[in-house]
Design brief:
This protein is mainly β and 369 residues long. The protein is built from 1 helix and 28 strands. 51% of the residues are buried.
């Protein structure tokens, strides 16, 4: 989504001057330098870890150079502002997000979100974070597994929500109501709509970004269960969403009509187009593969063996490599985009979940503005 489409929805970046004064008074310093210098031509990657903080990777050397403490636990969703100055993490255990200065690696402030925050998208100086007020925790059911629900007349099931946070004010402005267990977050190409996946009731819903009004509901049950990832084609002509228990991804046209399903390896999650929009990449968690599809014919053209529970990935800003977080094998796998071969495995022993870069690059969690 082009940043100009959301220009009227974010505050003027001149307020960063006021924010900078607060940075010096907050948090602990990062262990190492956390931003790229002027001579660094490939940038920096930031990895969220469910059993730790944020790992910092120098994309010039593909080496871990240190870590950042977000002062939160169960770190999952992660996002970064277009200018690279602020990093955002969703902290499951505390029900908040951390706003972090990348210049110092220090916590600027926490913003209370709600129970079980997970997915983060940052556009301009606004962050959109999914959270689940009714989440009871624990792993999701396995395919075909019977779900036994306990009766509780006093408990009212609440839908998941998307919190809208102004990063410069450090304030949650409003909420958009989603479906049960809202997962992925995407925007329409013109910036007017929010598209989210709701894994618990097998729907994809489309909302007015400004008002939160529900505009359309797409049921996925007949195509597959548990929609997870969601991505727009760079030109807005299509949307693709992984169906984890369907072992496929769903293709929607620009008006959110179902066009087709495309078979994938087992348990697909992270999905993204490349920058040119001619290829689609899918991380199939249980198949332990990163798969590549032609974005016009939807034919699978290649795949590479990866690691255990690989969910999210990002291209490097120069598009030469893909970095894939593999939680259960505790590593970030570096894949050459030209040859689709594994170049390196970067050890990360804290259950890596998500990854973004600065400069912002194409990925399953993020997109250039």
């Amino acid at each position: 989504m082009k940043s100009t489409h959301l220009a009227t929805r974010i505050r003027n970046s001149v307020l960063l001057v006021a924010l900078a004064g607060a940075v010096a008074a907050c948090g602990e310093k990062a262990e190492v330098e956390t931003t790229a210098s002027a001579t660094d031509n490939r940038g920096i990657a930031y990895v969220s870890n469910q059993n730790g903080g944020v790992t910092v990777i120098d994309l010039n050397t593909m080496e871990t150079t240190g870590s950042i403490d977000p002062r939160g636990n169960g770190v999952r969703g992660i996002g970064i502002t277009a200018d690279g100055k602020l990093l955002v993490t969703a902290n499951k255990d505390e029900g908040n997000v951390s706003i972090i200065s990348t210049a110092t690696g220090e916590l600027v402030q926490h913003v209370e979100i709600g129970k079980n925050p997970e997915f983060v998208r940052v556009v301009g100086n606004m962050a959109y974070i999914s959270f689940e007020p009714s989440s009871k925790g624990g792993p999701p059911p396995k395919p075909g597994e019977e779900v036994i629900e306990e009766e509780d007349d006093d408990e009212i099931e609440e839908p998941a929500r998307i919190a809208v946070v102004d990063l410069l004010q450090g304030k949650k402005l409003r909420e958009i109501e989603g479906g049960p267990e809202t997962e992925g977050i995407e925007f329409s190409n013109d910036g007017s709509k929010l598209i989210i996946t709701n894994e618990a009731d097998n729907t994809i819903t489309v909302h007015n970004l400004e008002t939160g009004e529900l505009l359309k509901t797409i049921a996925t049950k007949e195509h597959g269960d548990r929609p997870r990832g969601i991505k727009s084609a760079p030109d807005g002509s299509a949307y693709v969403s992984t169906l984890e228990f369907g072992n496929n991804f769903l293709v929607l046209d620009s008006e959110f009509n179902v066009v087709r399903t495309v078979a994938t390896g087992a348990a697909p999650y992270g999905i993204a187009y490349n920058r040119a929009g001619d290829l689609i990449y899918v991380a199939a968690g249980k198949a332990k593969t990163l798969e590549v599809y032609n974005a016009k014919t939807y034919e699978k053209v290649n795949e590479v063996t990866t690691g255990d529970r690989c969910w999210h990935f990002t291209f490097t800003p120069d598009d030469k490599d893909i970095l894939l977080t593999c939680g259960r094998s505790h590593e970030v796998v570096v894949i050459d985009t030209e040859t689709l071969t594994v170049k390196k495995r970067i050890a990360d022993k804290e259950l890596p979940w998500g990854i973004v870069t600065y400069p912002k690059a194409v990925g399953s969690l993020d997109a250039p503005e």
